[in-house]
Amino acid sequence: MRLLKRLILSGLLVSALSAVGCIRKSATLPQTLALHNPVSMDELVQRVNSYQDIRTVAAQVEIGVTDRYAGYRYNDADGALRLQRPEKIRLRITAPIVNAEVVDMTSDGREFKSALFRPKDKAMFVHGSNSLKSVRADEIKNAEDPRLKEAGALANIRPQHIIDAFMIKPIETADNKNEVFREQDIEIEPDTRPNKKGHFVNRTYYVLYVLERGDGGGVELRRKFWFDRTQAGTPLVRQQTFEDGDGRIASDIIYSDFFYPADSKWPWAQTVNIRRPNDGYEMLVRLADKDSIQINPELPLTTFVLENTEHLKELDLDHPADSPVNSKNLAGTGQGKK
Fold first, then answer.
1. How many domains does the chain have?
2. What pTM was computed for the model?
């Protein structure tokens, strides 16, 4: 009798909800994507650490840079990217069609130098220590040095932001300074499959958390690695790094369009999107040609040398605006490239 009453009440409830339009048949409920074979946590750590065998990289790339402080974007520029572990980089960006240089950037691991050629009215030579912290939007807006306003968020681009995206640092666990744990996470995301526009899917990830133990015994989150269980091979599709002390996201790096370069054991992403929310910029790097990438080529020492040969206005981020170093350059020493 009790069961009969429950069935009657359930039927009455469904009828009532249906009458007021609370029950609808939905064709766009997220579809749960099928999973590939499980992967152990040790194997995931090993995959991250296998990238340390990459010593050098050379590739032709397409670059897009968004300055969120100034509200403008460089689209579809051509670039030549050279990397050498642990912290050397050379990135030359040119505008297509006119073949005009936009940015030339290098770092020897201690100091970075960036020649900004475009837009012409903002041309300057920016340099400073790699360890410099970024400049907040309000600091740029209220800066006494007009060159800092001109550079905008581009003054926050550090070579290590790019290096860390491509030459992933290993997870050190031998000295017990780092702790690692894993969770399985399900995210509701737009369905990117053909003819599925407007639909959503449940996508499953392994997420590795890398925590670092400080000298005082406290533990802080340093990195998160996301592996997509719904793609063949369970590839690394996202890397997040975090600011010291406050847990803010420093870099949010998205990897997509995977392939295996010739004679390489590492899957590579053809597209890498580097987001720096606290630095006010975003950089999209795409390999122009999958066959253009070279793993561990020999690179000459001159690859990572950059001087202000065009006599651009200089901005030394290691010194304040009113210092002798910056004051003498305030008016600029040249007009830059024509």
1. 1
2. 0.80
